[in-house]
Amino acid sequence: MKDLFSVDGKTAVVTGGSRGIGEMIAAGYLSNGAKVYISSRKADVCDETAKRLSEEFGGECISLPADMSTLEGIDEFVAKLKEKEESIDILVNNAGVAWGAPLEDFPELGWDKVMNTNVKGVFFLTQKLLPLLEAKNSSDKPSYVINVGSIDGIKTPRFDNFSYGPSKAAVHHLTRVLASHLVRRNIIVNGIAPGPFPTFMLSAGVGGGGDVENTDWDQVGQANPRGRVGTPEDIAGLAIFLSSRACGFTIGDVITCDGGTVVS
């Protein structure tokens, strides 16, 4: 029972891991003994984050930049990963984008870019990584997939991001569909629906211009039932639960991590 939440010695992949929620999850895994690969579209940012996380939290964090919105980018990422690993234990599908515009002016580009990254990318990366997820798993030691959705896929978003909420609702249902197909292959799939966290995306939405360091997060948090925004411990703790022995019988669920926003 004492190792229920252990991820020590596991190998994890966290997409969109160079900043925001992905970086928080990667840091949580590293702090608890996992080896972590992170990806993002910007190679220099991804490389810098991997170096910083390795130094700050110990362990091994490896940068594998990739564009998860295209099959070409996904295939390139998987090929590079297969050169380094014969198996993985954890896949966190966190890479995501948003697009804001008034309803009358919302462009097709803003629809396609969001759907391609947030939905198509999740499905096809999971599909392409099945051989690595299954390579060493078993009934007693399953592998884990975590899809990061959003509370905007549960409730009506407050911003004019008309493709974002529907894309995350699709991620939530895709999580259930994949879970039902993969559970008998010893792959446990669940999802997280985060609420407000101190990220570039939310900073841009609340008028901070994406400046995470200088956004007034205390003010943003006042609107939350918990009276604050989320912390790295909040999201990393849930991710660790969803990729450890503690999650051996929780299948296809999407758990909110939002300080009580949805239920309130």
Summarize the structure.
The protein has 264 residues and is α/β, with parallel strands linked by helices. It has helices at residues 20-31, 43-57, 71-84, 108-134, 164-182, 200-205, 217-221, 232-241, and strands at 11-15, 35-39, 61-63, 90-93, 143-148, 187-194, 254-257.
Residue fraction in strands: 5-15%
The helix-and-strand class reads alpha/beta
Tell me the radius of gyration: 17 Å
Number of strands: 7
- Total domains: 1
Per DSSP, the total helix count is 8
Q: What share of the residues lie within helices?
A: 40-55%
- Give the strand order of the largest sheet, numbering strands 1, 2, ... along the chain: 3-2-1-4-5-6-7
Low-confidence stretches: none
Major pleated sheet: 7 strands, parallel
Provide the CATH architecture.
3-Layer(aba) Sandwich
CATH topology category name:
Rossmann fold
Globally, the shape reads globular
What is the CATH superfamily classification? NAD(P)-binding Rossmann-like Domain
Determine and state the CATH class: Alpha Beta
